[in-house]
Amino acid sequence: MPKFKYRMQNILTLKETLERQQKAAFSLAMLRVREEEEKLQQLLLRRGKYESDLAAASEGTLDLKEITHIKSAIQIMKTLIRDQMFELKKAQDALEVERKKLDQIMMERKTYEKLREKAFEEFKHELVMEDMKVTDEFTSFKYNKTQV
Predict the structure, then answer these.
(1) Which of 48, 111, 139, 141 has an alpha carbon 20 to 30 Å from 61's alpha carbon atom?
(2) What are the backbone dihedrals phi and psi of residue 67, each rounded to the nearest 5 degrees, phi first?
């Protein structure tokens, strides 16, 4: 019995390798987004702490120098938060690009897998037809031999 050999197996293998590499790139992009989100969360917590410090410094005896210092720290935190939001947006955009690349590569791999399945079905059909042909020849030969 002949063995099935897919003529585009090397292309399918290449597509599978590319897909694994793209999944790794997507995972790295996802990790970066999570890191940027964590940095933003930390900055927001620090700003909240400064705001509560400002509220506490505004009560009781007023220390103008400390209040000015805390207000300055809050302004710096707002700037850092805005910058971090831009970094997060860039990371999210990069993640979206990697996701689209991954979708495209997965679609290409699935196409080649379907082509492989179709070729295998054709191969099985050819085997069945060949077997029927041999059976017909055998029957025909047996019939002709009894006729002689």
Answers:
(1) 48
(2) -65, -45
Q: Phi first, then psi: give them for residue 8, nearest 5 degrees.
A: -110, 25
The amino acid present at 50, given as its one-letter code, is Y
**Using an 8 Å Cβ cutoff, are 46 and 81 in contact?**
no
pLDDT at 147: 66
Q: What is the CA radius of gyration of the chain?
A: 35
Eight-state DSSP code of residue 61: S
What residue spans define the domains of the chain?
A: 9-113
CATH of domain 9-113: 1.10.287
The pLDDT of residue 22 is above 90 = yes
Answer whether 22's CB lies under 8 Å from 98's CB: yes
CB 36 within 8 A of CB 87: yes
Q: Is residue 98's pLDDT more than 90? A: yes
Query: pTM for this structure?
Result: 0.77
